[in-house]
């Protein structure tokens, strides 16, 4: 006999769920191991005179289930190396919610060990029966000890197993509350199909970890939902709404839009988000990000209708790019700080563009003409600086600013003045770049500050019952300076 581990399932409950074939294997084995004795059939097996050992002691040595499963698998593989032929018995079916079996299957082949999976009735059948649920409607089976909120799908039946105690139930509850309202009905099913032990308790979600109703045979059932409060938190639901708006019989305005007609809206929504950030308006930020996402989805929907690409292509490309450009996170590279990350990002970006389009492109290509002027100026200067072309220190920029200002005052024609104003702004952008300041955001901040101070002047004028424009320049400057210094204004 070659190197081999035989894995059998003990069924979902007492001896009535134990198959005859598994029973024979248990009786015949001289190296029988149970993952745990915490199972209804184990006492009956002991009464039958079947000798076994269990791995329950390992659970006491580790605080994480992953470490428990790792050690169990290692011990079984080591027994094979020592010349034994272990039979490993697990609750239910070996291929349902059994991490140890998953490890054995993954690593057995590389060690020359055959892992022979034998039968065993799963807990799924009695759970579906006691809940009166038809699994053909679609269901998810999830591990409560390693549940992640992005695994959940409110549109199908969900069974969360391995909910051993209130601590696991608490983590499960927190994950579910990311999708469901606090009072959403959930059901705790314990020992399904086991005569005299089966329990089915339906409670609101917020009470899930308040019930002392959990054990090794406990499963939490979450029914499907079609309630907007739940479904509208799903990206797929939003995508479907946009598709419906663009479909025949949808919204006339949405149906007539094109990539070209939507161009101004994306910029507009982005700037409104930046304004919400500047105002530290958290609710506004959430709302404006939604408007930005709307533009992304509309463009993706339009592209999908022409067969160009879909939102899944957009998401995939972005995910690929994030992994590719973060080798210090997803590969073996390293980065000490944010500036090094930024530098490596640009290097990878340049290599990608060179490989895609050849090396005859200008270093300054790839900056859209539609960028705001200050942003485009900053991007052009940053790219030129990589080739060593640019001012080396703020003193040089200061000198250039004075030179551009003199040339502006000396300009005769309107065309010359426009050109010199452009040169002045371009040089000012260089100074902002040297001090690591975003010129676009800096100027927007100044605009907000000017607006705020001017409004304060208008309020002072209203106190006197006259429009602002009726006051002398000297009075306006006094008000302005008082506002600027934060002093109470004089009348």
Automatic annotation (TrEMBL):
GO terms for biological process: dATP catabolic process; dGTP catabolic process; dTTP catabolic process; dUTP catabolic process; methylation; response to stress; TTP catabolic process; UTP catabolic process. Gene3D superfamilies: Cobalt-precorrin-4 Transmethylase, Domain 1, MazG-like. GO terms for molecular function: methyltransferase activity; nucleoside triphosphate diphosphatase activity. Residues 257-330 form the NTP pyrophosphohydrolase MazG-like domain. It comes from the Bacteria. InterPro entries: 4pyrrol_Mease (IPR000878), 4pyrrol_Methylase_sf (IPR035996), 4pyrrole_Mease_sub1 (IPR014777), MazG-like_dom (IPR004518), NTP-PPase_MazG-like_C (IPR048011), NTP-PPase_MazG-like_N (IPR048015), NTP_PyrPHydrolase_MazG (IPR011551), Tetrapyrrole_Mease/MazG_pred (IPR024180). Residues 4-208 form the Tetrapyrrole methylase domain. The keyword Methyltransferase applies. This is Tetrapyrrole methylase family protein / MazG family protein. The lineage of its organism: Bacteria, Bacillati, Bacillota, Bacilli, Bacillales.
């Amino acid at each position: 006999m070659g190197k081999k581990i035989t894995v059998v399932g003990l069924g979902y409950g007492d001896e009535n769920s134990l198959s005859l074939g598994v029973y024979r294997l248990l009786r015949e084995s001289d190296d029988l191991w149970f993952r745990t004795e915490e199972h209804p059939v184990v006492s009956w097996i002991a009464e039958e005179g079947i000798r076994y050992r269990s791995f329950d002691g390992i659970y006491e040595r580790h605080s994480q289930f992953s470490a428990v499963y790792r050690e169990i698998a290692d011990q079984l593989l080591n027994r094979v190396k020592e010349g034994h032929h272990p039979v490993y018995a697990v609750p239910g079916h070996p291929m349902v919610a059994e991490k140890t079996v998953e490890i054995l299957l993954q690593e057995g082949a590389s060690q020359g060990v055959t892992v022979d999976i034998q039968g065993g009735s799963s807990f799924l059948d009695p759970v579906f029966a006691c809940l009166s649920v038809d699994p053909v409607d679609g269901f998810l089976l999830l591990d409560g000890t390693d549940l992640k909120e992005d695994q959940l799908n409110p549109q199908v039946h969900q069974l969360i197993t391995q909910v051993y105690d209130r601590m696991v139930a608490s983590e499960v509850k927190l994950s579910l509350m990311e999708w469901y309202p606090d009072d959403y009905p959930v059901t705790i099913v314990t020992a399904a199909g086991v005569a005299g032990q089966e329990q089915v308790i339906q409670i609101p979600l917020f009470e899930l970890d308040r019930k002392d109703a959990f054990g090794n045979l406990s499963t939490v059932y979450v029914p499907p939902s079609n309630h907007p409060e739940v479904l509208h938190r799903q990206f797929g639901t939003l995508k479907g709404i946009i598709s419906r708006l663009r479909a025949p019989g949808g919204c006339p305005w949405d149906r007539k839009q094109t990539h070209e007609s939507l161009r101004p809206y994306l910029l507009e929504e982005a700037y409104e988000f930046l304004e919400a950030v500047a105002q530290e308006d958290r609710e506004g930020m959430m709302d404006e990000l939604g408007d930005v996402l709307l533009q992304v989805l509309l463009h993706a929907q339009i592209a999908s209708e022409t067969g160009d690409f879909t939102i899944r292509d957009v998401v995939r490309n972005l995910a690929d790019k994030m992994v590719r450009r973060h080798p210090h996170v997803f590969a073996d590279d390293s980065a000490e700080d944010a500036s090094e990350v930024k530098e490596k990002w640009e290097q990878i970006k340049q290599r990608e563009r060179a490989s895609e389009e050849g090396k005859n492109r200008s270093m300054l290509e790839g900056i859209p003409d539609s960028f705001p002027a200050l942003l485009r100026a900053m991007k052009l200067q940053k790219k030129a600086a990589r080739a060593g072309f640019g001012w080396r220190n703020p003193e040089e920029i200061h000198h250039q600013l004075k030179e551009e200002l003199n040339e502006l005052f000396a300009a005769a024609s309107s065309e010359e003045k426009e050109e010199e104003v452009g040169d002045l702004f371009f040089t000012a952008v260089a100074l902002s770049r040297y001090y690591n300041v975003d010129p676009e955001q800096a100027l927007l901040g100044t605009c907000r500050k000017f607006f705020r101070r001017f409004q304060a002047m208008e309020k002072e004028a209203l106190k006197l019952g006259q429009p602002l424009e009726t006051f002398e320049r000297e009075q306006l400057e006094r008000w302005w300076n008082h506002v600027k210094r934060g002093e109470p204004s004089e009348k």
